[in-house]
Amino acid sequence: MTNPIFQISADARLLIGHMQNATVGQQFSYDELSKVVSREVSGAFAPLHTALRRLLRDHDMVFGTIRGVGLKRLDDKGIVDEGTSSADRIRRRAKRSFERMNKADFAALPREYQARFSAHASIMATIAHLTTGSQVSRLERDMPAGKRELPVAETLRMFAK
Length: 161
Hints:
By secondary structure, the protein is mainly α. The chain is 60% helix and 7% strand. The radius of gyration is 21 Å and the shape is extended. The model has no long low-confidence stretch (mean pLDDT 91).
């Protein structure tokens, strides 16, 4: 019998057990979480990331980071705000990626790499443009009332207006 590729660690299971009954707004300090697993827990602790993914997927729980302190279970407005800050991070990362790609000597690249460059540069530039505050505000303003989300094609049409 083969073992699964990924097995959840004991530390991740302990963290899930400790956090799975959290109420909205409840906070967990890194010190508290460190005591649960008997070793230092910080925002870069892999079992914590696993626990947070499992809590999201299996328990519909969303946690946000309190910088340098720990985690907090988010309410609905906090979840939306977290999405906004994620879009900001994505925009900055896309801009940096676009800038780095433009350091390549396009003319010296083989045709296959020129096509790859063009595709990825176009995608990064588009992501950076579509996630600016003014573009997001425009989309928010034009969003049909009561719509949870739009199909990709319709979203792109709204940006093209």
